[in-house]
Amino acid sequence: MIHLGLIGYPLSHSLSPILHQAALSAVSMQGDYRLYPVAPGEIGRLAEMASALRNGEVHGLNVTIPHKQTIMPLLDELTPSAKAIGAVNTLFIKESKLIGHNTDAPGFLADLAKFLRNNAPEKKALVLGAGGAARAVVYALLNDGWLVTLAIRRMDLAQARTLMESFNSIVGIRLLNLVLLEAGDLGRLDSGIQLIVNATPVGMFPETDFSPWPSRLPYPDGAVVYDLVYNPRLTRLVQDARASGLRATTGLGMLVEQAALSFACWTGREVPLEVLYGAVEA
User: Fold this and answer.
1) Residue 62 in 3-state DSSP?
2) Which site among 5, 20, 183, 224 is 20 to 30 Å from 261 CA-CA?
3) Domain covering 105-250 in this structure, CATH number
């Protein structure tokens, strides 16, 4: 019997249990996937969850907002990608060590490749946010050859500068720029932006009437919009972008892709993606 779970807050409408129960059934494994709500700042509760994984009460954990960075000091080791990204979303035990991994970056790129048709010689992306999800997206895009501009709120300036310093040193070329997530700054960007990625939680249930994009600011012509938020099924950002004539999608595909990668880390078993897509669509 394998016990899996998700650490985060809030978790009332997470699709992860549906995905992983479908995965367990697909590979004929007995087990369950539980939600473990942990409020921001509850370090003691995070430590309890880490201990549960160490002693075998739980066999694998996902980590979501707002704990993807906070939990890292409680781990024994990070995979190279998780260390580079500076955030984790998957925890597992290997050789008696508690390992932190990040499947968000490859999950994002895998889904983006299905959605994006881009043959331009120079790929330019605008990423909204500077938290753990943004770190995974920026890491993925930089390593895929994109020129990335980070758009952040004034209150997140220190966090964004830390992100920039870490990635510029990893990539070795300064492909990462910074602007404020305000109409004035965004309006002055060149017209070559081909991809906008929302890596903030703005628009997530239950605050579904909000969009991270400044009101009345036109979108870059011909840009594609990718909103990591997948609950609601159509976010305000996606609806507005489509109304402006742009192609836009939510992060549901990324959720499925990263879930399959996490499940393989815990069990060594690969799950057909069509099984997972069928489960969430149902």
Assistant:
1) strand
2) 224
3) 3.40.50.720
